Amino acid sequence: MLNEVETLSTLRFGQRAKLIKNVAKVNQDESVEQLKLVAAKLRAQLSAAKSRIAQLENTLKSAGIAAPALAAGFDEEGGAGAGGIGPVDSEEYAKLNDECGALKDENDDLMRQLKEQEAAAKEATGLLDAVQNEFDTAKYDLSEQASEIARYKAELNSRDADLEQIQMEKKNLKEELQDINERLART
What is residue 74's DSSP assignment? Predict the structure, then answer.
């Protein structure tokens, strides 16, 4: 068979391609009415959160605990304004910044290790494919050799039968020759 390695590779690709499943999802822009409903829902959630905060502040006051003031940078609507989340202690900021840097370094190291592992896996997959192709080629060669051996055995059996027949004919001819010699000797 010509190009059996390419044929096997193509068949494997086809098998993998059959396993691919696509899920279509339509991107839809929400209408103005839908956006208004979402905004109303968010306003209701904000109002409920504000009332819960007020209830908790009253509970703290009745227990004699001072409620913390809103952090600077929050506007009246309860969202973060230009000031972000409020004032942060410089020592705490440095600590958080250091932790962030350490996490970033750890993330970079993990990403590097992941890329190395992916490269190693890709290389191993390539080697596995090469070994599989060699195995398939050897298997094909073995089957070819097995059929050739079977053909030789059949030919050998045929020749053995021919040889046996020739030996029988030789024996018969010897007997006939002996009979003829005996007749000639008698005459």
Answer: B
